């Protein structure tokens, strides 16, 4: 949900960084489908409004049903085939009317069922949050909730304080409550109904930031908001959404209920990893449901988009007062002046001279995006039922929206801004390692540490931020156009570095991606560069020591020789060797587990990694005891007579390696016995 699965999968592939922009491949899989379902006849709208200033003269591509059909029919089927995606749907609204709604590909590959925009249900993942936030704002305007009041006043359990600051609903809606990220039990396929209250009380995340200070996307936070809606309204969350949002918007084919109501089951699109694989995946159960459990059709989503664009009004029904809707769309915070930030629930995506709010959504197999152009009164929704290959759903939805903006809201070429005179000095200043604010520290500190991204200074004063590539897979270059403010070379995206009160680099943020997290500076031994260098050397030396000892034992056994050591030295040596084995086993076990999580995110999402973590925690404790024995044996070796200099050197290097690996185990919480991940 909201890219957490993608982040973890990317970690296991690279063991270095998080999400990477992938390219659309140039070849079309032979088994991919590009069948297109009939479009629903809809009313055509006028040419999109063109803002003054940076925009060119009005585009010759008018935003009409006819032009959209030509554009999308040429774009989507080819993108699905290249991305190995089974099916998708796109709907567009303009000026209070449905302008376009059409399905592409297949909802069920085995049955060759086409996607129908008014009948095929898609899971929309975290785009569901917009309905939860809308429900919150309904209760705010009724005076039943206050955005700036301690949420503990609305709960029947307590969120522990952090640095004396309470969490508010405004914090939850801007993803600044300060929670660590949690994935365990977020998605399951067991078909069991969810219990929102039980989940929230049993999965309380650790607080890692003061509330209101650091943006770090939180599914748990949205679950809390949904529970507050349930408690304050006196209605079950599902009932509340159906009565106060679905009913007035005439959304007859939408639900948060899990499993699906029987009447809706035949309408559900089947999820797939890839179209070429073709293996149907089970219905994904999301917990907490308010954060991402909704199933809906593309046509139902047009009703919601129209209501939001019309500031709460749909037909003769109103789900929000105008002032409330305007506040909901207004940016509440930004992580860098001039860059997009969070509104209330929506994140801002301003581009092409347009004020834009939106929200994406991701489960394992369904991937969705929604964008509302507030000034143009235009909205676009898209959803896909397969992750696809490297050029799959994540790439398609981003490329489709960018192409949509370029076609109907064209802008003048980016004005050239002179490179700052401080470029080379500042490039050296910002170079280093950075870690996403959206992370888990309780049970998966080591895994998230491996997702650090590297900012590299180049000789010409430009920088590279690892994880940001162009469509050809080459890293984007950024040049300084103002104090610690960077612009993409041959592009318009921004990347800004923010300093603390002492002038030190604190973090960087960008408008090249949605503003759901920042990248915080990492220093000292905690940097990935340091961990990779010293950890690799220490682990390699430990492994070589084990090989040498085993080889030496084989040689002595063959020649029937024994080591000339005292009984005390033999015991010391034996315990040191066992400690070395425990140490190596611990680190190797964590490495294997992290790779397994990357290839199978279900180990995290369904919590099946927990037993293995407990085992590794226990082995880790033995490993730390072993480190003491390794060091003890090294000291004893120096004190014993007739030990060769090579033996002493080896024992000393092994002791140093063991001490470093012990620090690694403690620093990255590999003995925490915590499985809140």
Task: Characterize this entry briefly.
By secondary structure, the chain is an alpha+beta fold. Helix content is 37%, strand content 15%. α3 (129-141) crosses α6 and α16 runs antiparallel to α17 (645-667).
Notes on the protein architecture:
With 677 residues, the protein is an alpha+beta fold. Helices cover 37% and strands 15% of the residues. Helix 3 packs across helix 7, helix 13 (528-559) packs across helix 14 (567-599) and helix 14 (567-599) packs antiparallel against helix 16 (610-639). The longest helix is centred in the last third of the chain and has 33 residues, at 567-599. The radius of gyration is 28 Å and the shape is globular.
The class by helix and strand makeup works out as alpha+beta
Helix percentage: 25-40%
User: What proportion of the residues form beta strands (DSSP E)?
Assistant: 15-25%
3D shape: globular
Mean pLDDT: 89
Notable features of this structure?
17 helices, 677 residues, alpha+beta, eight-stranded antiparallel barrel, 37% helix
Please outline the helices and strands.
Layout: H1 4-14, H2 65-83, E1 87-94, E2 97-108, E3 113-114, E4 122-123, H3 129-141, H4 169-173, E5 187-188, H5 196-202, H6 219-233, H7 237-246, E6 285-286, E7 295-296, H8 298-309, E8 313-314, E9 317-318, H9 322-329, E10 347-348, E11 356-362, E12 367-373, E13 378-384, H10 393-408, H11 423-430, E14 432-436, H12 445-449, E15 453-457, E16 463-469, E17 475-482, E18 485-488, E19 494-499, E20 505-510, E21 519-522, H13 528-559, H14 567-599, H15 602-605, H16 610-639, H17 645-667
Antiparallel strand pairs: 1-2, 1-13, 2-3, 4-7, 5-6, 8-9, 10-11, 11-12, 12-13, 14-15, 14-21, 15-16, 16-17, 17-18, 18-19, 19-20, 20-21
């Amino acid at each position: 949900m909201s890219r957490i699965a993608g982040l973890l999968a990317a970690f296991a592939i690279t063991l270095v960084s998080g999400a990477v922009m992938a390219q659309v491949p140039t070849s079309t899989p032979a088994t991919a489908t590009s069948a297109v379902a009939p479009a629903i006849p809809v009313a055509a709208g006028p040419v999109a409004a063109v803002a003054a200033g940076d925009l060119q003269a009005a585009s010759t591509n008018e935003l009409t049903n006819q032009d959209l059909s030509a554009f999308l029919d040429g774009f989507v089927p080819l993108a699905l085939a290249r991305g190995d995606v089974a099916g998708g749907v796109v709907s567009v609204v303009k000026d209070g009317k449905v302008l376009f709604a059409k399905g592409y590909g297949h909802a069920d590959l085995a049955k060759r069922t086409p996607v129908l925009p008014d009948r095929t249900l898609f899971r929309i993942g975290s785009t569901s949050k917009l309905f939860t936030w809308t429900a919150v704002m309904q209760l705010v305007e009724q005076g039943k909730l206050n955005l700036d009041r301690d949420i503990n006043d609305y709960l029947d359990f307590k969120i522990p304080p952090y640095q004396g600051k309470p969490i508010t609903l405004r914090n939850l809606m801007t993803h600044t409550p300060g929670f660590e990220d949690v994935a365990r039990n977020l998605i399951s396929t067991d078909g069991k109904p969810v219990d929102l209250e039980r989940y929230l009380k049993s999965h309380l995340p650790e607080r890692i930031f003061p509330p209101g200070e650091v943006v770090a996307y939180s599914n748990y936070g949205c679950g809390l908001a949904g529970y507050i809606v349930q408690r304050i309204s006196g209605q079950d969350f599902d009932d509340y959404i159906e009565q106060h949002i679905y009913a007035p918007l005439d959304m007859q084919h939408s639900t948060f209920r899990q499993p699906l109501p029987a009447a809706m089951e035949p309408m559900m699109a089947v999820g797939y990893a890839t179209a070429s694989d073709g293996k149907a995946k089970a219905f994904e159960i999301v917990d907490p449901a308010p954060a991402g459990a909704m199933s809906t059709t593309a046509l139902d989503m047009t009703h919601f988009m129209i209501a939001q664009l019309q500031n709460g009004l749909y037909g003769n029904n109103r789900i929000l007062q105008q002032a409330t809707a305007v506040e909901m769309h207004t940016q509440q915070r930004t992580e860098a002046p001039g860059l997009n930030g969070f509104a209330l629930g929506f994140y801002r995506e301003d581009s092409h001279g347009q004020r834009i709010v939106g929200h994406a959504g991701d489960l394992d197999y369904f991937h969705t995006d929604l964008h509302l152009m507030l000034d143009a009164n235009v909205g676009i929704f898209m959803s896909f039922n397969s992750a696809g290959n490297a050029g799959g759903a994540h790439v398609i939805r981003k490329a489709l929206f960018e192409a949509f903006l370029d076609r109907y809201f064209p802008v003048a070429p980016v004005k050239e801004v002179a490179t700052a005179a401080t470029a080379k000095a500042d490039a050296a200043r910002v170079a280093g390692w950075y870690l996403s604010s959206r992370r888990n520290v309780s049970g998966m500190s080591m895994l998230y540490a491996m997702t650090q991204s590297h900012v590299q200074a180049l000789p010409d004063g430009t920088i590279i931020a690892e994880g940001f590539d162009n469509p050809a897979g080459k890293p984007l270059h950024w040049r300084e156009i103002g104090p610690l403010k960077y612009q993409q070379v041959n592009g318009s995206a921004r990347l800004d570095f923010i300093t603390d009160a002492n002038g030190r680099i604190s973090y960087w943020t960008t408008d090249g991606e949605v503003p759901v997290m920042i990248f915080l500076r990492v220093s000292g031994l905690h940097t990935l560069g340091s961990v990779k260098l010293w950890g690799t050397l220490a682990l390699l030396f430990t492994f070589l020591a084990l090989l040498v000892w085993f080889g030496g034992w084989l040689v002595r056994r063959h020649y029937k020789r024994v080591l000339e050591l005292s009984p005390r030295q033999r015991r010391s040596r034996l315990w040191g060797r066992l400690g070395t084995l425990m140490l190596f086993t611990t680190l190797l076990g964590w490495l294997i587990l992290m790779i397994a999580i990357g290839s199978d995110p279900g180990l995290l999402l369904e919590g099946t990694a927990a037993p293995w973590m407990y085992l590794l925690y226990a082995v880790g404790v033995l490993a730390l005891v072993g480190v003491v024995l390794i060091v003890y044996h090294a000291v004893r070796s120096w004190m014993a007579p007739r030990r060769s200099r090579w033996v002493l050197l080896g024992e000393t290097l092994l002791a140093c390696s063991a001490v470093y690996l012990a620090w690694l185990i403690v620093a990255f919480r590999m003995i925490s016995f915590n499985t809140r991940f």
